[in-house]
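FW: tagging you since you asked about this chain on Friday. Here's the raw sequence from the shared folder, copied in full. Didn't touch anything.
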Amino acid sequence: QVQLVESGGGLVQAGGSLRLSCAASKFIFSINAMGWYRQAPGKQRELVARITSGGSTNYTDSVRGRFTISRGVARNTVYLQMNSLKPEDTAVYYCNADLPGILPDYWGQGTQVTVSS
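HL: got it, structure written out here
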Protein backbone atom coordinates (compact mmCIF):
# COMPACT_ATOMS: atom_id res chain seq x y z
CA GLN A 1 0.00 0.00 0.00
CA VAL A 2 1.34 3.38 -0.99
CA GLN A 3 1.39 6.13 1.60
CA LEU A 4 1.97 9.82 1.04
CA VAL A 5 4.08 11.19 3.88
CA GLU A 6 3.88 14.92 4.54
CA SER A 7 6.14 17.12 6.64
CA GLY A 8 6.90 20.78 7.21
CA GLY A 9 3.80 22.12 8.87
CA GLY A 10 3.89 24.19 12.01
CA LEU A 11 3.16 27.51 13.66
CA VAL A 12 4.34 30.72 12.02
CA GLN A 13 3.57 34.41 12.35
CA ALA A 14 1.74 36.26 9.63
CA GLY A 15 4.13 37.23 6.86
CA GLY A 16 6.33 34.22 7.50
CA SER A 17 7.12 31.21 5.35
CA LEU A 18 6.83 27.45 5.52
CA ARG A 19 7.77 24.67 3.12
CA LEU A 20 5.67 21.52 2.96
CA SER A 21 7.07 18.29 1.59
CA CYS A 22 5.34 15.13 0.43
CA ALA A 23 6.87 11.85 -0.62
CA ALA A 24 5.34 8.54 -1.64
CA SER A 25 6.43 5.55 0.41
CA LYS A 26 6.64 3.42 -2.73
CA PHE A 27 7.06 4.08 -6.42
CA ILE A 28 3.81 5.03 -8.16
CA PHE A 29 3.95 3.94 -11.78
CA SER A 30 1.63 6.52 -13.27
CA ILE A 31 0.37 9.81 -11.87
CA ASN A 32 -1.72 12.44 -13.60
CA ALA A 33 -0.76 15.10 -11.09
CA MET A 34 0.23 15.77 -7.49
CA GLY A 35 -1.23 18.51 -5.43
CA TRP A 36 -1.94 20.12 -2.11
CA TYR A 37 -5.38 20.58 -0.61
CA ARG A 38 -6.34 22.22 2.66
CA GLN A 39 -9.23 22.10 5.04
CA ALA A 40 -9.93 24.74 7.65
CA PRO A 41 -12.30 24.07 10.58
CA GLY A 42 -15.91 24.15 9.45
CA LYS A 43 -14.97 24.44 5.78
CA GLN A 44 -14.77 22.08 2.85
CA ARG A 45 -11.47 20.74 1.61
CA GLU A 46 -10.19 22.91 -1.23
CA LEU A 47 -7.47 22.61 -3.83
CA VAL A 48 -4.51 24.87 -3.09
CA ALA A 49 -2.08 23.99 -5.87
CA ARG A 50 -1.55 21.23 -8.40
CA ILE A 51 1.26 20.18 -10.71
CA THR A 52 0.76 17.75 -13.57
CA SER A 53 3.18 15.11 -14.77
CA GLY A 54 3.99 17.50 -17.61
CA GLY A 55 4.87 20.29 -15.21
CA SER A 56 1.82 22.49 -15.62
CA THR A 57 0.70 24.19 -12.45
CA ASN A 58 -2.45 25.81 -11.20
CA TYR A 59 -3.29 27.61 -7.97
CA THR A 60 -6.36 28.74 -6.18
CA ASP A 61 -6.74 32.51 -6.48
CA SER A 62 -6.10 33.23 -2.81
CA VAL A 63 -2.56 31.80 -2.87
CA ARG A 64 -1.41 32.71 -6.38
CA GLY A 65 1.79 34.76 -6.18
CA ARG A 66 2.51 33.64 -2.60
CA PHE A 67 2.70 29.84 -2.89
CA THR A 68 4.80 27.78 -5.28
CA ILE A 69 4.35 24.09 -5.99
CA SER A 70 7.25 22.07 -7.36
CA ARG A 71 8.33 18.49 -7.90
CA GLY A 72 11.36 16.95 -6.31
CA VAL A 73 14.28 15.28 -8.04
CA ALA A 74 13.05 11.96 -6.69
CA ARG A 75 9.94 10.77 -8.41
CA ASN A 76 6.65 11.07 -6.60
CA THR A 77 7.73 13.96 -4.39
CA VAL A 78 6.16 17.37 -4.28
CA TYR A 79 6.77 20.56 -2.33
CA LEU A 80 4.73 23.61 -1.46
CA GLN A 81 6.67 26.77 -0.67
CA MET A 82 4.38 29.12 1.20
CA ASN A 83 5.42 32.76 1.57
CA SER A 84 3.67 35.81 2.98
CA LEU A 85 1.43 33.58 5.04
CA LYS A 86 -1.83 34.95 6.34
CA PRO A 87 -4.03 33.83 9.24
CA GLU A 88 -6.62 32.67 6.69
CA ASP A 89 -4.09 30.13 5.41
CA THR A 90 -4.49 28.24 8.69
CA ALA A 91 -5.69 24.73 7.89
CA VAL A 92 -4.71 21.10 7.68
CA TYR A 93 -2.84 20.63 4.42
CA TYR A 94 -3.13 17.33 2.56
CA CYS A 95 -0.94 15.93 -0.17
CA ASN A 96 -2.74 14.25 -3.08
CA ALA A 97 -1.72 11.99 -5.95
CA ASP A 98 -4.20 11.96 -8.81
CA LEU A 99 -4.06 8.59 -10.57
CA PRO A 100 -5.27 7.89 -14.10
CA GLY A 101 -8.58 6.28 -14.98
CA ILE A 102 -10.78 4.88 -12.25
CA LEU A 103 -7.99 4.34 -9.74
CA PRO A 104 -8.66 6.09 -6.43
CA ASP A 105 -6.43 8.98 -5.45
CA TYR A 106 -3.80 8.67 -2.76
CA TRP A 107 -3.97 11.06 0.18
CA GLY A 108 -1.56 11.97 2.92
CA GLN A 109 -2.51 12.08 6.58
CA GLY A 110 -2.41 15.87 6.70
CA THR A 111 -0.11 18.40 8.31
CA GLN A 112 -1.28 21.35 10.39
CA VAL A 113 -0.35 24.86 9.34
CA THR A 114 -1.21 27.61 11.81
CA VAL A 115 -0.57 31.27 11.04
CA SER A 116 -0.86 33.66 13.96
CA SER A 117 -1.75 37.31 13.52
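FW: The chain has a mean pLDDT of 94.
HL: agreed, and The two ends are 40 Å apart (CA to CA).
FW: great, closing this out.
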